[in-house]
Amino acid sequence: MDPVPFAWARWPAAAEAAAAAATAAAAAADEEASLCEEEEASELLQLLHRRDAAPCLRLQQQQLQQQAGLNAQRDLGGPQQQQQQQQRMSAAGSPSAPDAGVGYTESPAAAAAAAAASPAAAAAAATAEGGESLFWHVPSYGCYTTSPVYIPLLQLLRQQQQQRRAAAAEQRKQQQQQQQQQQQQRLQAGSPAALLLEAEAFVAAALLRRRLLLTAANKKLEGQLAAAAAAAAAADEAAAAPKWLSGVSRHLLPYVAQVSSRAFFDPHYRMQLIETLNPKP
User: Fold this and answer.
1) Which ranges of the chain would DSSP assign to H, the alpha helix?
2) How many CB atoms lie within 10 A of CB 121?
3) Percent of the residues in the chain that have a pLDDT greater than 70, as a whole number
4) 29-68 pLDDT, tens digit each
5) Per-residue DSSP letters for 76-112?
6) Orientation of helix 153-190 relative to helix 6-92, angle to 10°
């Protein structure tokens, strides 16, 4: 086989370079899309964290305000309460306890802070806030229960994001496979072996058409030769005809031939002809 021309030898390399450039562009686009998705997801997570923490923060602020108000009241009425307590303790004969009132006033604030820090209080605050909460209330098994189940929305969003990413990855994989198949088909169609097969098919079709034309010409020539041979045979037969037909006119020859053939094949007819020509005495 002849060596492959330089153009055909160089073409696959150019095709591979174009395919590599296309894959690099697709990878860059995918990376940009993933970065955008990550940024959007981080912003969404920050917003969700803020909204989730809003009820608890409000409760803490309320508790702090209440505690500050109690502390202010305690500071204002502290000396009078201490004097009254000292008088009561001296009257009862027991030692004074100036710090007892302080402990008594701080215990409700600590209890309120502990209650605010508990998950049940946060859930109650979330239910009280209503639409501002980011927790979905799902009854267990469709029954009415006093202890509702709360599903965090962040977990559901992460699951949906993972599903979307998996679907996008599968779609990109399918697109890459299709592109590879198309490139392989193009390379196979433009390779020297494929071109050689196409040339062989073209030459075979041309040879078949030429053969059909030659066959038709041969048949036509054979017909012409057969007609010429028949004409020559007829001329030979006419030349070899008996001499008694030389005096017969041209219009009478067909009838003479008909009668002679009948007399040749039919002996009774032949005898009748002979008797008509030579009657018995």
Assistant:
1) 6-92, 100-117, 119-129, 153-190, 192-239, 253-265, 267-277
2) 16
3) 54
4) 888 888 888 887 777 777 766 666 666 667 777 888 888 8
5) HHHHHHHHHHHHHHHHHT----TTHHHHHHHHHHHHH
6) 170
